[in-house]
Design goal:
Helices cover 60% and strands 0% of the residues. The protein has two helices and no strands.
Length: 78
């Protein structure tokens, strides 16, 4: 797999992984009797944990890119 193909596979798998982990562990402001910030939606997350989720998405994308490499390369070799 050429470098451009690797970057494309990584980019697509990163977004898929990010969208998959975004809802994990998120609690709305209204849950647990929490205080709702005025002017915001009560279902908005209290703590979205984006840094942690970006790290997990990156690790997942690396794994999927490596998996795709070992699936695609044998077909390209003939």
């Amino acid at each position: 797999m050429d470098p451009v193909g690797t970057v494309v596979v990584f980019f697509i798998s990163w977004w898929i992984c990010l969208l998959a982990v975004l809802p994990i562990g998120v609690k709305g402001q209204f849950e647990d009797g929490g205080e709702v910030i005025e002017g915001s939606e009560e279902g908005a997350p209290k703590e979205p944990m984006l840094r942690k989720k970006v790290i997990w998405a990156t690790l997942g994308a690396v794994g999927l890119t490596i998996l795709a490499h070992f699936v695609i390369v044998p077909y390209l070799a003939g």
